[in-house]
Amino acid sequence: MKLSRIAAAVTTAALAPAVLIASPAFAAGSDAPAAGHQPGPTAPDRSVPDQSVPDQAEDDRKTILEIIAHPMASQYMKTAGLQAIADGPQAMRKFIEVDQHRIRIDDYRVAIARLAHEAGPGLREGIDKMFRDGVTLEQLRHFYEVTQHELRDEDNKVEISRLIGTGGPAVKEAGKKALKGTPADRAAFLKTGRFLAQASDDRVELARIDEGWQGPILSEAISKLLNGSPTPAELRHFLEVTQYELRDQDNRVAIAKIIDAGGPELVKAGLAALAGTAAERAEFLKTGQHEARAKDQAAKDQAAKDQAAKDQAAKDKEKDGQGNGSGPASGNGGTAGGSGSGNAAVTAQGGSGAALASTGAGDGTTLIAGGAGTALVAGAGLLLAARMRRTGAES
């Protein structure tokens, strides 16, 4: 019986150095993620130490120090490890066998949650699955080391395809090349390549805008930009923001010139556009000015038509007035009739036979009547003289 106890003690003493040598080798744990922002390593589970081995506590302390010294160890892992060392051999053993694994699960989940920043839809869906109940430490480790990169590349392929569908010639060419390359090629395209290709397309687009635009303000700004050394971001901002601000300035100048000599409707519509939005000014130049000009022309045509009708009515009235004063004249007491208006009266005063009054337009009839009256008076005088001679002869 005593010989068995002595043999067990000898065996234990022989194994102790091997355990002390092997412990640091397992400190990082077989499930530690690859280099990157991942949780710190773990140590493999061990059986409850035999307290009869005097160096076991020191071995556990060294193991914990190696775990928390790892560059990827979280602050939570460091704090818990130091606390276990302070609490003694039993706390250190519990940390190595239980606590470090639980903390690693939490640390992996924190690291995985951070991946959601700027993640695509596929990666976000995968991240959500890692927070379901029952997910093991091994599954978390594999997702962080392997699966996340696969899902990210799938999202990159989808994004590159979208850019190819909406981009210019340079973006299409570079995007198709990236799709045929490696995951690193696709990541590089989305990080920098797409912007360089977009800058090339933006230069072409700016030149096209300059060629088709009539306003001086925008054209001058485009020339200045292209002749300089703009960054891809500056070119994109000019196309997305600045060009519309300069277009509106050119539109304001154009509207002011249009209404300077326009009709009432054109001036009214132009002032309303100047007081409105940039879109309203663009619409005025596109269609509004023409509609306002049409209204002004219609009003002008109507005014001319009204004036013509007024002039014609005046002419018709004058013509009617002249027609009412013409026609045959009638006289009383044996007066002669003729063309003219009113009545003509001829009265002999002292045998002179001159016409005393006449109204209307004459045509010589009055002179003839005057001559006949003179002849009649002369005949009456001759007759009176003959009678006087006969009377003298008889006496």
Automatic annotation (TrEMBL):
Compositional bias annotation for Basic and acidic residues: 287-321
Name of the protein this chain belongs to: Gram-positive cocci surface proteins LPxTG domain-containing protein
KW Transport (keyword) present: no
Name of one Pfam family that matches: ALF
Biased composition (Low complexity): 342-359
Keywords of this entry: Membrane, Signal, Transmembrane, Transmembrane helix
Residue spans crossing the bilayer: 367-386
Native organism taxonomy: Bacteria, Bacillati, Actinomycetota, Actinomycetes, Kitasatosporales
Signal peptide: 1-27
Biased composition (Gly residues): 322-341
Region: Disordered, residue numbers: 31-57, 287-359
Entry keyword annotation includes Signal: yes
Top-rank lineage group of the source organism: Bacteria
UniProt xrefs under InterPro entries: DUF312_ALF
